[in-house]
Prior knowledge:
Helix content: 25-40%
CATH topology of the largest domain: Transferase(Phosphotransferase), domain 1
Low-confidence stretches: 8-28, 259-291, 293-298, 493-504, 630-675
CATH architecture of the largest domain: Orthogonal Bundle
Structural class: alpha+beta
CATH superfamily of the largest domain: Transferase(Phosphotransferase) domain 1
Strand order of the largest sheet: 1-8-11-12-10-9
Shape: globular
Strand content: 15-25%
Radius of gyration: 27 Å
Largest sheet: 6 strands, antiparallel
CATH class of the largest domain: Mainly Alpha
Mean pLDDT: 76
Number of helices: 16
Number of strands: 33
Amino acid sequence: MAVVVAVSSRSFLCCLLFLFIAISQTSAQYNYVSCDNNKGNYTAESTYQTNLNTLLSNLTSNTQINYGFYNFSYGQNSDEVNAIGLCRGDVMPDECRSCLNDARDNLTQLCPNQKEAILYHDKCMLRYSNRSIFGLMETKPSYYMYNTNNATEVYQFNQVLSSLMRILTGIAASGDSRRKYAAASAGASNFQTIYAIYGLVQCTPDLTQTDCNDCLDEAIKQIPTCCDEKRGGRVVGPSCNIRYEDYRFYEQTTIIDPETPPPSTINTSPEESSNTTIIVIAIIVPAAAVVLVICLFLYLTRRNARKNHAVKEEEDEEDQNEINIVESLQFNFDTIRVATEDFSDSNKLGQGGFGIVYWGRLSNGQMIAVKRLSRDSGQGDTEFKNEVVLVVKLQHRNLVRLLGFCLEGRERLLIYEFVPNKSLDYFIFDPAMNAQLDWEKRYKIIRGIARGLLYLHEDSQLRIIHRDLKASNILLDEEMNPKIADFGMARLVLMDQTQANTSRIVGTYGYMAPEYAMHGQFSVKSDVFSFGVLILEIVSGQKNSGINKGENMEDLLSFAWRNWKEGKAINIVDPSLNNNSRNEMLRCIHIGLLCVQENLVDRPTMANIVLMLNSYSLSLPIPAEPAFYMNSRTRSLPEMQSWEYNSREPGSSEAIFKSVQESENEASISELYPR
């Protein structure tokens, strides 16, 4: 039998008035509900209720989401509703959607007019609020449950439990933006008994690795208070939850694309002492493109020789994993040749500086995009495979997904998912096409690009600086969701590295930050600058290279700054857009100008930008004059060879290069050497 307890404190109750409903698992479909009267109430038939019903009704409608995490918003200003649905990592997609739909029905009945509420089910959690709740680590309201049976050999039980929870925390926190979940078992024995402890930890995937770690650590600290000496217990909060039992309560972790090899179980040898402990850990780690099988050896001894041996075993296992990853990603050349009709010109999507891109169809009907790299790249086979293994680990809904590669003779092919709606520039800069992008779609595109960049900069296992973010490198799927593409110029930097230098500058002039264009210094703030230019292009529908005003030509940054400074920022907005979301448009212009400030220290990080886009209560600082502002002090760029990146040809989503003499705008720098 399990006992449910609501977690609260005197100070917490003084600040918040909650309706706590705690129901035992055996008597209801849900474990705990909280309706927050302190965050405001809505009336029947109100706009907020309409938005809430619309959002909750469509929350699980996207059947492409197979990883159990839904986070969406609907509405504007004070009537905006934000919702998060999270299923346990072992729950199948159909069961997950069913659980969340049941939670929706229960929650709206139990909390009939509260603007903020949360319901915890055994296999899912659903919450909604009129404030931004995405990316925030929150521990209240929470509850805990415990098994009424007491553990035997309490000291040894707690040791094994502590080790298990610590390992699971590290694995879950290192997960990607789709899932932060880990489950495993640890066995222990003494002279009389042999028993196992089964553990599970999970965070909402919108948390950073640090926040997930902190949240789970806080939950684990509650175990002595809630469940001391018990055989099982759980601590559940809005951002994370933990559970352990002396029986297996979870199923095998569900697989999310791409499919990965099954997990393995490693048993350590017994230690030479009277109190022998055998740790058996079976861990499934969904790390985006692959599942890394991490085998850890837990020894109670502190002898250095045993520690060194464990480290070596772990390194050998990781090396084997890398080999398995490469083998699972490699396509047969004949398969790709047949899929692209022998690389037919009719299948050609576009051509860039690194090769030609074709569309193809595999024998199973799957559409793919194939980049056939130039043969004179000079990159060796080992380096090429290593780069593929790195890129394939970048898995996010707002990044174009790499499916695999082909390496045969001098042929080097990269196989990507096929994105049907071409690139952003195809729509945004064409007067005949931009009407298809109303403000709601444009705002979704802006926020999607921001989430993708945040993942590259902070939330992925690697820290990636894209270096060529622009409208033609943003592809749009069938629902007009943005996907950042073309990592041919991206650079991997250390997680604690803030800046790097290069003598070979690549990218597109107009999107390039001044410190990069002038001195070859690039950082995450270089991508922030490019993102700011992109925001202004999306809002205005104009290229950054210039806006025609009669016989005069003014670049976009100068035009935006001048109008914003004169209090006429509405002049920047694309005339084809209506003014229903005027405040949202003006806020995006403000954020764009913050991103393109000349001093990189003044530019916000992508984490702050995502917060600015999701929270209207957050006040924005006043931007300084942008870089390359026409009225600022005289600037000169080094002489350079320039190229135009043109993806406007029918069916094209890649680069077609023209010499600068033929180009009218949007020069893309192939090589530049700073003086």
